[in-house]
């Protein structure tokens, strides 16, 4: 939620290619990154995007008058922290998305111990310079496109995860994680401060939520597969079509953690993505 850009090296070209072959309009939108902005700003940005997509201004921006957007058939996808914005659109945006796909995504359940307690550095923590964190925190420049090489903004996430202050950082509320950690899990939703409750998306999932497919690695130490498992079960209990595609022993990014650096995709990762796309296509065609 602190770093990244569609111009970065992790852009899902396979998703773009699928959209091109399927004659879908592909949109990759900027949104404000956490610090100094917060998760609530990211919700507002998701809402603003959907208002724009439904406006005459968007229609007039298309390259041909023969092109148009069917606002009843918008799919949202999100990878890692980007899944938070995709999930936010499913809760708060108008028009409502028709289907959701996330991959190793944040936001299915932000009340897990994983987010309220300190924990050891993950395997990708060594890729950042934690000495840079004070400079990053002192910089109050609003960032919506972290495309500058060496920006090191992901160091914020790593620092917060190690300290158990991830929720403090993404919501801009010092002490939030520690306060919630003192409360038994079952009581945490009520313990969230009133002004921050809208940011805990799992508490606002209802019967109008769209069908959703979740892809996650079982060895993900950055965003645990419990995030996807929780929402998959939650939607199932509501009678909403949902599918959970777990890639065995895959780490964050669906990579093989034992394949060296840079890591290779885990066995079964691309097959899981292909199954997820089948779910999305079926939802858009009304064939789920």
UniProtKB/TrEMBL annotation:
Domain BD-FAE-like: 18-88
Domain of life from the UniProt record: Eukaryota
UniProt-listed InterPro entries: AB_hydrolase_fold (IPR029058), BD-FAE-like_dom (IPR049492)
Coiled-coil segments on the chain, per record: none
Protein name as it appears in the record: BD-FAE-like domain-containing protein
Species in which this protein is naturally found: Aspergillus aculeatus (strain ATCC 16872 / CBS 172.66 / WB 5094)
Highest classification ranks of the organism: Eukaryota, Fungi, Dikarya, Ascomycota, Pezizomycotina
């Amino acid at each position: 939620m602190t770093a990244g850009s569609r111009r970065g090296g992790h852009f899902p070209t396979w998703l773009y290619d699928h959209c091109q072959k399927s004659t879908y309009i592909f949109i990759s939108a900027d949104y404000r990154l956490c610090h100094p902005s917060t998760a609530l700003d990211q919700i507002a940005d998701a809402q603003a995007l959907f208002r724009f997509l439904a406006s005459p201004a968007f229609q007039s921006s298309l390259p041909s008058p023969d092109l148009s957007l069917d606002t009843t058939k918008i799919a949202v996808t999100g990878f890692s922290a980007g899944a938070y914005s995709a999930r936010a659109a499913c809760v708060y945006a108008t028009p409502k998305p028709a289907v959701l796909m996330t991959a190793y995504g944040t936001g299915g359940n932000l009340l897990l111990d994983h987010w309220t307690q300190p924990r050891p550095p993950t395997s990708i923590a060594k890729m950042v310079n934690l000495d840079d964190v004070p400079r990053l925190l002192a910089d109050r420049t609003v960032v919506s496109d972290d495309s500058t090489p060496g920006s090191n903004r992901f160091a914020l996430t790593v620092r917060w995860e190690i300290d158990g202050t991830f929720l403090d950082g993404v919501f801009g509320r010092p002490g939030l994680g520690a306060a919630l950690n003192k409360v038994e899990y079952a009581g945490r939703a009520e313990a969230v401060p009133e002004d921050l409750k809208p940011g805990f998306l799992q508490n606002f999932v209802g019967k109008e939520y769209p069908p959703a497919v979740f892809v996650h690695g079982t060895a993900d130490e950055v965003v645990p597969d419990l995030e996807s498992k929780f929402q998959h079960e939650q939607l199932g209990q509501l009678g909403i079509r949902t599918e959970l595609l777990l890639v065995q022993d895959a780490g964050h990014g669906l990579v093989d953690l034992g394949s060296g650096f840079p890591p290779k995709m885990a066995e079964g990762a691309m097959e899981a993505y292909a199954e997820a796309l089948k779910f999305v296509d079926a939802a858009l065609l009304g064939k789920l």
